[in-house]
Amino acid sequence: MKEEVMDKAIKKALKEFKEEEREEKKKKVLHNTKLLLRNFNNLKTHSDKAKYDISEIDIEAENGDDRAYILSIRRSKLRTLIMVSHIEMAMSELKENKIRSGSLEQYRALEMFYIEKKSYGEIRDKLNCGQNTRECKIVCVNY
């Protein structure tokens, strides 16, 4: 009898722990997504305006310290290009989904806030929505 009670208590504690872990993971993903969206313009500008082409650098001709530095720059540029590409792809897919579902205003609100750096007031004015409408709430509350 005591073992059954202990087993139930352990299972309940594990279930609660896993749920909390899932929630924390969701929060972290959402936080990272917001961070990428907030910094998207900077990342894009950085990757577009780099003054070199990573394939043009001859790392074999460099000494050890310079070679490590160049490889680090190359990896950083490549990661930035990949992030920008993934964000652009995700934004495109999101836009298509919102068009299909008839809620393009939600996408526009997100785009205006993160990409165009519009204020909540500007978004409300442009989309002709009040503070309590769904489109504006999505941006104001969730993002």
UniProtKB/TrEMBL annotation:
It comes from the Bacteria. This is Uncharacterized protein.
